[in-house]
Amino acid sequence: QVQLVESGGGLVQPGGSLRLSCAASGSIFSIYVMGWYRQAPGKQRELVAIWRGTSTNYADSVKGRFTISGDNAKKTAYLQMDSLKPEDTAVYYCNAGTPTLHYWGQGTQVTVSS
After folding, report:
1. Within 10 A of 89 (CB to CB), how many other CB atoms are there?
2. pLDDT tens digits, residue range 51-61?
3. What single-letter DSSP state applies at residue 54?
4. Among 28, 30, 108, 113, which one has the highest count of C-beta atoms within 10 angstroms of its own C-beta?
5. Cα(30)–Cα(48) distance, rounded to whole angstroms?
6. How far apart are CA 3 and CA 23, in angstroms?
7. What are the pLDDT digits (tens) for 89-112?
8. Closest CA to 81 of 96, 95, 97, 92
9. C-alpha angle with apex 111: 107 to 112, nearest 5 degrees?
10. Taking phi first (over 0 means left), then psi (-120 to 50 degrees means alpha), and beta for anything else, what does residue 64 get?
């Protein structure tokens, strides 16, 4: 079993920055990928960014503005979000993948508004 705890969400003005953190605990040795997803009201959950230790992938909508990173030993993932836009408003979820299962955090709210 893997448990994920996110932190760092909040309210920010357009153009501002936030940094999300995701800490994994439990059977972290089996985690091979970590990522961030988001879900806005009335919309499906969508991929934001994925980190595989040596490689990253981003949704087109956040390229150049968001940066995913992590600590491979601790299985901690971060999402640095810059130049935030109102359309980035959503609940952000951390995801961790093992060879058999994917795990989700409880989510953290990010609101971009003036």
Report:
1. 17
2. 998 899 999 99
3. S
4. 108
5. 22
6. 8
7. 999 999 999 999 999 999 999 999
8. 92
9. 145
10. left
Per-position b or e across 5-41, b if 16+ CB within 10 A of its CB: ebebbeebeeeeebebbbbbeeebeebebbbbbbeee
- Does the pLDDT value for residue 72 go beyond 90? no
Report the relative pairing of strands 18-26 and 76-81 from DSSP bridges: antiparallel
Torsion of CA 95, 44, 113, 106, to 10 degrees: -30
Is the confidence at residue 74, as pLDDT, over 90?
no
Supply the pLDDT for residue 27. 86
Instruction: Tokens for 47, please give them.
Output: 């991929």
Q: List the 76-81 sheet strands across, edge first.
A: 2-7, 18-26, 76-81, 66-71
Q: What CA–CA distance (Å, rounded) separates 31 from 24?
A: 9
Single-letter residue type at 104 = W
Terminal C-alpha separation, the chain = 40
